[in-house]
Amino acid sequence: MRKFVLLCLLALCHAKPYKPINIMDVLRDHDILMRDADDDDDDDENDLFPSWDPPEPDCPFGCQCSRRVVQCSDLGLISVPDKIPVNTLMIDLQNNDITEIKEDDFKGMDKLYALYLVNNKISKVHPKAFRSMEKLQLLYLSYNLLTQIPPNLPQNILELRIHDNKINRVQKEAFKGMRSLHVLEMSANPLANKGIELGAFDSMSTLYIRIAEAKLTAVPKDLPSSLTELHLDYNNIAKVEVEDFLRYKNLMRLGLGFNQIKSVENGSLASIPNLREVHLDNNKLKKVPPGLSSLKYLQVVYLHANNINSVGVNDFCPVRSRAKKNLYTGISLFANPVKYWDVQPATFRCVSGRRGVQLGNFRRK
Questions:
Q1: pTM to 2 decimals?
Q2: What percent of the chain lies above the pLDDT cut of 70?
Q3: 288, HSE (Cβ side, Cα atoms, 13 Å)
């Protein structure tokens, strides 16, 4: 179930221009996401949205309330409305002009599962604003004006989206106790390496983190060791060093595209033996990174749009023919000054098929 939920969420985790969340789509998928959840206080067991629920008698003015879902999007609200029923499961407040989340805005809402505050003007969140949300699992705070991670976040959150804010610092223990967090999306914030305090990610067991479009100049070395996916695209990382991935031995997918990487130190990739996919496209590499041939699970490598001018016969495949290695399904080398006619046919002997390699011609701009 954990892996299935992660795959469902990843599709939403790319920092793009604001697109409103379709709440009806969320409702349609909700039973799948919660089919193994326990709710001892609910007489309907796991059916969180029973069709026989009558409309809510107390509904904020202008909002639509039904089946324990409160929709108040696109109303020009400057604050969280009053009279939201305390038994609400989902609140949609996206695309308003809310500037602050106050202490009692969500008081008593201990059954709340999802809270959408996307595309507002929120710059301040009271330290006790989420104190009663023990069952909150989806919190979307993207496209606001926050300068730091809100304090005292609920510990049971499954997904936290906080990209496109003004966060330039991640304070120590910002995510304290959040062992259930699967996905953390915090791209498009002016966050530099020095803005990540030591211990900021302690006690977390996150699977997916994306810090793209930030101001990172190196791979952060204090992220959760449980990571299976790390995306640091569109930063200013200049090189990959041996110690960069020592902590992240479970990584299966790594995104470092659109940086300024000129070199990958020998042995850097040996620390992540389970790697399946690596993105190093649109950098300044002059050669194929060393160590790819030793990664037996690696299947997809993006190296296009670099400065690679030659490809060795053993850059991708093991020297020993009997060495175990999953076949590559994709290797991209186009937009490099490599003379494809000089590449030996045996170079791609461990690729699944002819279409698995993309060389192409190189044209100088």
A1: 0.84
A2: 83
A3: 20
Q: Are strands 114-116 and 357-358 parallel, antiparallel or unpaired?
A: unpaired
Structure tokens at 71: 């929709």
Q: What is the pLDDT of residue 25?
A: 59
Q: Which comes out higher in pLDDT, residue 259 or 26?
A: 259
Phi, psi of 342 (to 5 degrees): -90, -10
The torsion angles phi and psi of 64, rounded to 5 degrees, stand at -115, 125
In the three-class reduction of DSSP (H, G, I as helix; E, B as strand; rest coil), residue 30 is classed as helix
Q: By the 8 A CB rule, do 187 and 161 touch?
A: no
Report residue 343 CA to chain centroid gap: 36
Backbone dihedral angles phi then psi of residue 125, each to the nearest 5 degrees: -130, 125
- Which pLDDT tens digit goes with each residue over 349-364? 999 988 899 987 655 5
Closest by CA to 196, choosing from 174, 228, 181, is 174
Instruction: In whole angstroms, give the CA distance from residue 324 to residue 320.
Output: 9
Kindly report each contact of residues 346-349 with a partner whose C-beta sits within 8 Å and lies 24 or more positions away, as own/partner: 346/313, 346/317, 347/311, 347/312, 347/313, 347/315, 347/316, 347/317, 348/316, 348/317, 349/317
The set of residues, in sequence order, having a beta carbon less than 8 Å from that of 20 and lying 6+ positions away, is: 73, 74, 94, 95, 118, 119
When the pLDDT of each residue in the chain is averaged and rounded to a whole number, the result is 87
Look at residue 310 in the predicted model and tell me its pLDDT.
93
Paired strand residues for 90 = 69, 114
Quick one: which of 85, 135, 123, 78 has its CA closest to 106?
Answer: 85
| Angle, helix 23-33 to helix 2-10, in steps of 10 degrees | 160
The alpha carbon dihedral of 124, 82, 132, 138 has a sign of negative
Task: Count other C-beta atoms under 10 Å from residue 253's C-beta.
Answer: 18
* Per-residue pLDDT reduced to its tens digit, 16-31: 555 666 655 555 554 4
Between CA 244 and CA 222 the distance in angstroms is 10
